[in-house]
């Protein structure tokens, strides 16, 4: 694994976390009604609006974003990046598992998009578990 791949994986996860977190925490009703955006709406089908739950989800995503940004600044630190990957993996596997069991409430397009995006997040987390090869002082691996 090289650091460019790590930067990309961490960067994408940070964007997802901060986008979702800021929106859910600071505009919970807007987030509930319109997530993920772009004319799609995936949350109302899951049950009634709950401000506390929406804000808690936002706070969790903001915390994940903070951890991910810290790891992004220390991309060569295997322990930190792998810990960040493990945290994201636990969340994403459980999140993915829930949603694939509840796809029946969506139309075909939204079913496919749910599976594709949530699976991609699982894969990004797995990538972070791979160690970066260390480079010796003479530039060889």
Care to describe what's here?
- Keywords: Membrane, Transmembrane, Transmembrane helix.
- With 141 residues, the chain is mostly helical.
- It has one domain.
- The protein is built from five helices and two strands; from the N terminus they run H-H-E-E-H-H-H.
- Strands 1-2 form a two-stranded antiparallel sheet.
The arrangement of helices and strands along the chain is HHEEHHH
Structural class designation = mainly alpha
Radius of gyration: 17 Å
Chain oligomer state: single chain
Count of structural domains: 1
Determine the N-to-C terminus distance.
12 Å
| Strand coverage percent | under 5%
- Name the helicity range: over 70%
How many separate helices? 5
Strand order of the largest sheet: 1-2
- The overall strand count is 2
**What would the average pLDDT be, to the nearest integer?**
94
Keywords: Membrane, Transmembrane, Transmembrane helix
Transmembrane segments: 7-26, 57-75, 112-132
List keywords for this structure.
globular; two-stranded antiparallel sheet; mainly alpha; 2 strands; 141 residues
Question: Gist?
Answer:
By secondary structure, the chain is mainly alpha-helical.
List the helices and strands and how they pair.
Elements: H1 3-26, H2 28-34, E1 36-37, E2 40-41, H3 51-73, H4 78-100, H5 108-129
Antiparallel strand pairs: 1-2
Helix pairs in contact: 1-2, 1-3, 1-5, 2-3, 3-4, 4-5
